[in-house]
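quick q for whoever's on today - can somebody do inverse folding on this one?? i tried earlier but teh output was garbage lol. tokens:
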């Protein structure tokens, strides 16, 4: 029987439709699930000639147990410097002298050999080394009229009456008399009548309210004068004291200069700061013309203020008269502004800038002067 060519072609087509035929569609849907999943090959039929590849589903996954990153590489934590002997991070106070430390005994006491910052306790650092130093005033060691000498003892502290004329602090020594017959002031080692001038240790708002004066009998500049007197007595200073402070009431007491009473004393008055006798001005005229030759930074106890420069209520011009400004309602209120000076040399000591009466607590300058009854 003769085979027709069409039957031969039809037979080949039937072979192609057999289940194991290579032309079966790889993306045909599973009628049971409808998921269209791709069938995978039998691993046992692999020839081993296929190229090896990395599954993309694993190359971007971080393994929490190993710290692997998105590139499959292990990420290590940053190294922390540790002490070889303890395994802990080096720190001051751990009893081990690490790099950058002078000492470390694990105690860090203020009176021992090793102090804060793991530094040796040495003379001049402000820490008194028990059993070794008698005193230590830090940078003020050896200061004239201070409390401690340069070698951290209480000997050889320069002071008035030590028999040595201290340049910049003294103009004479105790027992001397100048050509005009004026004796050397034994308290300050200055020729003539020395008077104190200081900046108050306490600060006040614009109405000058303070626990130093509990009653409300005095206000304004009169209250300021009382505050200066109270502070001076507390500091053991002699004489009568008045505030370098002016109001605008237009009375005889409005101007600071009128209340202090210094102009009539001529050039014999020398104004000095407590504790050390640093000269501020040689005479009243010099004070009101040039301002202080040294910044007034010592309080009634002779101690320097902790924070410098400091600001001081004044409303007072260089010559000691009122600036004519509405200064905190004449120092009776916390409303408005008040003009203040700065602890510096020259004009700014009394005329610096205005401050809010309520937001700033400022100091007062206190000047020793004559009592009013003395004229």
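ok took a stab at it. sequence:
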């Amino acid at each position: 029987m003769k085979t027709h060519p069409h039957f031969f072609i039809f037979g080949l087509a039937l072979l192609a439709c057999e289940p194991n035929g290579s032309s079966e569609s790889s993306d045909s849907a599973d009628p049971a699930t409808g998921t269209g999943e791709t069938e995978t090959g039998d691993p046992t039929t692999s020839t081993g000639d296929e190229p090896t590849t990395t599954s993309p589903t694993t190359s971007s996954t971080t393994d929490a147990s190993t710290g692997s990153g998105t590139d499959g590489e292990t990420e290590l934590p940053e190294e922390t410097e540790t002490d070889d002997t303890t395994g802990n991070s080096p720190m001051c106070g751990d009893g081990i002298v690490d790099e950058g430390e002078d000492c470390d005994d694990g105690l860090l006491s203020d009176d021992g050999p090793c102090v804060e910052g793991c530094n040796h306790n040495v003379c001049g650092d402000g820490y008194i080394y028990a059993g070794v130093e008698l005193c230590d005033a830090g940078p003020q060691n050896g200061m004239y009229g201070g409390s401690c000498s340069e070698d951290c003892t209480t000997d050889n502290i320069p002071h008035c009456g030590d028999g040595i004329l201290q340049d910049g602090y003294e103009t004479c020594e105790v027992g001397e008399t100048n050509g005009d017959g004026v004796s050397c002031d034994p308290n300050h080692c200055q020729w003539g009548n020395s008077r104190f001038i200081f900046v108050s240790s306490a600060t006040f708002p614009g109405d000058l309210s303070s626990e130093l004066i509990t009653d409300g009998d005095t206000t304004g500049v009169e209250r300021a004068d009382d505050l200066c007197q109270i502070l001076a007595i507390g500091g053991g200073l002699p004489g009568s004291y008045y505030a370098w402070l002016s109001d605008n009431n237009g009375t005889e007491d409005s101007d600071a200069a009128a209340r202090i009473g210094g102009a009539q004393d001529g050039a014999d008055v020398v104004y000095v700061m407590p504790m050390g006798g640093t000269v501020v001005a040689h005479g009243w005229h010099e004070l009101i013309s040039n301002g202080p030759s040294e910044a007034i930074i010592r309080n009634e106890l002779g101690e320097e203020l902790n924070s410098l420069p400091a600001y001081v209520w004044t409303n007072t011009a260089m010559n000691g008269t009122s600036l004519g400004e509405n200064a905190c309602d004449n120092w009776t209120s916390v409303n408005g502004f008040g003009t203040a000076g700065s602890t510096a040399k020259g004009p700014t000591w009394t005329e610096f800038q205005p401050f809010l009466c309520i937001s700033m607590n400022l100091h007062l300058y206190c000047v020793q002067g004559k009592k009013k009854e003395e004229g």
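fwiw The CA atoms of residues 16 and 181 lie 141 Å apart. also The chain has six helices and ten strands. so keep that in mind when u check it
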